Please model this.
Amino acid sequence: MRQRGPARGVAVGRRGHRATYPVVMARSHLTLAALATSAVESLEVAASQPFGSPGGDFDAALLTGADGRHWTIRVPRSERAEAEQSADLVALRALSAGVRTRLPFAVSTYAGQVPVDGTRAVVYEFVYGSKHPLASFGAEYAASIGEAIAAIHALPTSVVVDAGLPAHSSVDTLRGTVDLVDRAAATGLIPAALLRRWQVATEESALWQFTPAVVNGALGSDSFLGADERVTGVLGWHALRVGDPARDLGWLVAGGDAVFDAAFAAYSRVRGTVDRQLRQRATLLSELEVARWLLHGTDVRSTEIVDDAVQMLSALVDEVQKDIMNPIGPQTMPVLGVDEVERLLERTEHVR
Model:
């Protein structure tokens, strides 16, 4: 169920008030274009325009070179964004030219950087395609996403390990999940039926017998760029690691049965039946995103976030109770409506 969160660069403070990072005046696309020419020696900018969401964690611009090629430049506006950018650069270096030939889509290519105001502006070659909201996914596009995710998971784990990036075993994954459920239970706000459902899942040993794979670790609908119902690019590699493949699939559950079925079927055609419990864990992880949101609310002492999470938990437990005879498994119903999920996912990126 994982996707995108509140306006990036904004932290949710005590009692729901939004606390911002130290204010830095937004840099214009013209300023960013000038920085780009310093970062990339051969770049001659013919045109520039703002890129991305105003007021987010990054100042960004889309640049057109004199040769017609396109580039993007990003300057982080918060410590979190700077850390994300640094992790993304490490991951992009790990995804060498040889590795990229194994992927059926484009990945950003680092072009250069230049210091600015205590941080750095980074220039990338532009990846073409459009973003599509989860609610608009058709079966063909969902299948292409399933194939794209399968290609990531089929990469050799040495790609990640050799780059010094995190590698988590199935035992690590189970321990992390148990800890999350325990912390959520300690709030006293998890409905009993839902808590028991999660606890039973963590006690089912077969669910956690999987082979870790290379995972992007931060996928959501806006991670994908597409054209003509095909994925053309994947953005955001800052959470690249070896871990549970279900981590990259759970967010698709929120799209409904048709979307998840199409994506999962395409994924299975590419990967084969290498993990018989993959779909079950993806369902579990999609539900646990609400627990993460609740814990974030308690951590920052935001009654607004906590109340929002409690409302979502209520909707979630209603769906579970309708399907009480079926534990987490292949036929589990979508846990929240798409509109509710989009509302949650537009708030949760900064929790990661």
Notes: The chain is about 40% helix and 15% strand. Residues 88 and 238 are 4 Å apart (CA to CA). The chain has two domains: 10-125, 134-351. The two ends are 13 Å apart (CA to CA).
